[in-house]
Amino acid sequence: MRKASDELSDEIYEVIDKALVTMSTSKQISGRRTPLTHFQDAFCSFSELRRILGVGDAEMNDVTTLDLDRPLDVAISFSTGDDMPMKMDDLPYMKTKGLGLVRIRRISFREARALGAKRFFERTYELAAAHFEYDRDGVYTSKTVVLGENDGRNWHIANVGHGYDDMLRLASSFAKDACERQFTARFEWQVSLGYGDGGTLAFETDPIGAREIFRLRDIPNGASRRAALLHWVQEHWRKKPSDPAEATKVREHLRGASNFEWNGLRCKIRPSDFDTEKALLNSVGSRR
C-alpha cells in the first residue's frame, strides 16, 4: 500500500461517504422513475478514489459485447464536471459538478417493447443514467433509453422520436468502458459499500488490500473481536486428531467473512469469478 493503512482508509471513506450520502438524501425530479437500487454496486470511477488507491487505467484491446462470457450488465459511478472520466462534455446534464450513475444491461425484446422500442436489433439493452448536482442538494434527474447493436460495437437508438441524441453519445462513450469493466471484473475482487437498504457503490481490491483498508472495521454486536476477512488459505497438511502420526492434505481454499460493517457502512467482499471457480474446483478435488 502506498500510504499508512489508517490514513488510506480515512480518505477512501470520505470519498465513498460523500457519494452515498448524496444518493441517499436525493429525490428524483425528472425522467422515468429509476430507483437508486437500479444502479446497485456501481463501480467507482471517481478520479480521486483511483488516485488514493494508486490505480491507473489499464491498457486493453478493444473489448466488445461479443468478447464477454455473459450478457452485458454494468453500472459505473463517476464525477461529473471537470473530473469526468469519459468524454461526455457535450451532455448538458453532465456538465455541472456532481455525481453520475450509468447502467447498461442486456434486456429481452419484450422488455425493450415495454420501454418504447420501435426498432429491433440482434441484441437490445437498457441504458439508464442519473445525475446528482452538488449545488442542488436533494434532487437528481434521470434518463432511460433502449439501445441495439448487431456487431458488438456500433450502437443505435431503438426508440423513435426526438431527444435521444445525447443518450446515443453517452452510449458511445460508456459502452466500451462497460465492456472492459465486465471483462476485467472476472479476475478482480471487489467490495461493495452502502447505507441501510439504499444504493451501493463498489471498487476493486484484493485480499491483502481489503485487510489493510478495513483493518478498523466495526466489531459485531456481542463479539469481542473482528472475524478475519475472506482470504486464501494456502495448501497445507493437517494432523489427524485420531492419529497424530498421520496427516491429510488440505487444499488451497477461501475462508473468512464476506459481510461486515465499516464506519456504519454495510460492506460485502466478492472474490473474482476466477478465484470462486478455482475454490470450487479445489473443493470438489478434496472430496475425491
How would you describe this protein?
The chain has 288 residues and is α+β, with helices and mostly antiparallel strands. The protein has a domain at 5-185. Helix content is 26%, strand content 31%. It is built from six helices and 15 strands. It has helices at 5-24, 47-53, 109-114, 165-185, 207-213, 273-286; strands at residues 27-30, 42-44, 73-80, 98-107, 123-133, 139-149, 156-157, 189-194, 200-205, 231-233, 236-240, 243-250, 253-255, 259-262, 265-270. The strands form three sheets. Strands 1, 2, 3, 4, 5, 6, 7, 8, 9, 14 and 15 form an eleven-stranded mixed beta sheet that branches. The model has no long low-confidence stretch (mean pLDDT 84).
Structure, briefly:
The chain has helices at residues 5-24, 47-53, 109-114, 165-185, 207-213, 273-286, and strands at 27-30, 42-44, 73-80, 98-107, 123-133, 139-149, 156-157, 189-194, 200-205, 231-233, 236-240, 243-250, 253-255, 259-262, 265-270. It has 288 residues and is α+β, with helices and mostly antiparallel strands.
Output the keywords:
globular, alpha+beta, eleven-stranded mixed sheet, 288 residues
